[in-house]
Specification:
The structure is a single chain. By secondary structure, the protein is α/β, with parallel strands linked by helices. The chain has two domains: 208 residues, Rossmann fold (3-Layer(aba) Sandwich), CATH 3.40.50.300; 158 residues, P-loop containing nucleotide triphosphate hydrolases (Rossmann fold, 3-Layer(aba) Sandwich). It is 37% helix and 16% strand. α2 runs parallel beside α3. Bound molecules: adenosine monophosphate (AMP). Adenosine monophosphate binds next to α3.
């Protein structure tokens, strides 16, 4: 379906054209008409499906055509991470370029100046707020945020927000909102706790299911079955022998990210690291250097497994197997964005074999087991059913559940 068929406001259509979107993606096709009709939505859709524009476009169209409460905050998008807040704000900027819609990302951890700038925006009026829960509550507690004109509430990556312990914060924010509003909930997965949240917040929602727990076929997947000490030499070998523009290496733990980055720097790779210990400004600098091609190689925790959208990532390496199959799909989905192709290699140690075979079941695909270079020595056999899984907690995520945005 072409965007011209949605009857969007001409200035919004201009932004869509300037973004080079022609046809709506499946989630956009299913979600845009009911949102335009004023319905609540619960949608399971992952990053990469075009879900952001799916809620932004109809929402912005309504803000352009319905002038009630203009000058007040009319839409709030709550997201789990700063990175996603910034990315969505940029998306809004692009799509609303030819309109008079204003927006601001509001996220924690930055300096006092940005808090003051956010406060000013709240006081002088802004159409769309894209916020992490903790920071939004900090502003709400100061008493100057007027949400009486709010028409839209969007919860994006709702499953991630609940995983990160934001349930209570979300409840608090909702208490400040007018009861009559349109609610849009997007989540990559639909566990029962999301359904419960939906029952409390949404009003007769239209349900849309676009979740693909399977990576696109254009990503070439491979697994290297190795002993733990063979991982670093293998990574160095892969980086030297695989041509890439931008490569991203995921590790489940911050400690591993730091250690591997140190080791790769010693080997003279142009590499940086990204994880939750870094200051926000440093994270942004690293990300923009990576996106701009000045740093071709990045080692990251799962903080980057969702949301980051850089078209030139053509190689993803999983230093270890993520605990959650969905995280695997998200990690490797960082490559082969847009029309490009990409490779995703996973290093599978003995302790991770069972976990990896569970992922193969989830994605309904046996991942090709690649030949490990002979100079690295003997490697273990891939026999997941014979191996014990890694102990729970032994491969913990880097997000501490109570961390605030
Ligand atoms: P998302 O799933 O929202 O993270 O979007 C993934 C990528 O697809 C982003 O780079 C969007 O700019 C892009 N995108 C979204 N909708 C379309 C569309 N209809 N046509 C082409 N690209 C799109």
């Amino acid at each position: 379906m072409r965007f011209t068929e949605f009857n969007f406001h001409p200035t919004l259509l201009e932004g869509i054209e300037a973004s080079n979107y022609e046809n709506a993606t499946p989630v956009q096709e299913q979600v845009i008409p009911p949102i335009l009709a004023g319905k609540d939505i619960i949608a399971s859709a992952q990053t990469g499906t075009g879900k952001t524009a799916a809620f932004l476009l109809p929402m912005m169209n309504r803000l352009l055509t319905d002038h009630a409460d203009e000058g007040m905050i009319r839409a709030m998008i709550i997201v789990p991470t700063r990175e996603l807040a910034i990315q969505i704000a940029q998306h809004i900027e692009g799509l609303s370029y030819f309109t008079n819609i204003s927006s601001i990302p509001v996220y924690g951890g930055s300096d006092a100046q940005s808090f003051v700038a956010e406060k000013k925006a709240f006081q002088s009026g802004v159409d769309i707020v894209v916020c992490t829960p903790g920071r939004m509550i900090a502003h709400l507690n100061m008493g100057y945020v007027n949400l009486k004109g709010l028409k839209f509430l969007v919860l994006d990556e709702a499953d991630r927000m609940l995983d990160m312990g934001f349930q209570e914060d979300i409840n608090k924010i909702i208490q400040h909102l007018p009861a009559k509003r349109q609610n849009l909930l997007f989540s990559a997965t639909m566990p029962e706790k999301i359904r419960q949240l939906a029952r409390r917040i949404l009003h007769e929602p239209v349900e849309v299911n676009i979740a693909i727990s399977r990576p696109p076929d254009k990503i070439r997947q491979g697994a290297y079955v190795v002993y733990e000490p063979q991982k670093n030499p293998l990574i160095a070998h892969l980086l030297k022998t695989t041509p890439y523009k931008n490569a991203l290496i995921f590790c489940s733990r911050k400690h591993t990210v730091k250690q591997l980055t140190r080791d790769l720097k010693k080997l003279k790779f142009n590499v940086e690291e990204i994880h939750s210990d870094l200051e926000q400004a440093d994270r942004e600098n690293v990300l923009s250097a990576f996106a701009g091609g000045r740093i071709p190689l990045l080692v990251a925790t799962d903080i980057l497994s969702r949301g980051i959208d850089i078209d030139t990532i053509d190689l993803v390496i999983n230093y270890d197997v993520p605990d959650d199959g969905e995280d695997y799909v998200h990690r490797i989905g960082r490559t082969a964005r847009a029309e490009a192709t990409g490779s995703a290699f996973t290093l599978v140690s003995e302790m991770d074999q069972r976990k990896f075979s569970a992922i193969e079941r989830l994605i309904q695909k046996e991942v090709e087991k690649m030949k490990v270079p002979e100079e690295l020595g003997e490697v273990p056999k891939y026999e997941p059913m014979e191996r014990k899984a890694r102990k729970p907690g032994g491969n913990r995520r880097n997000f501490t559940p109570r961390r605030r945005g």
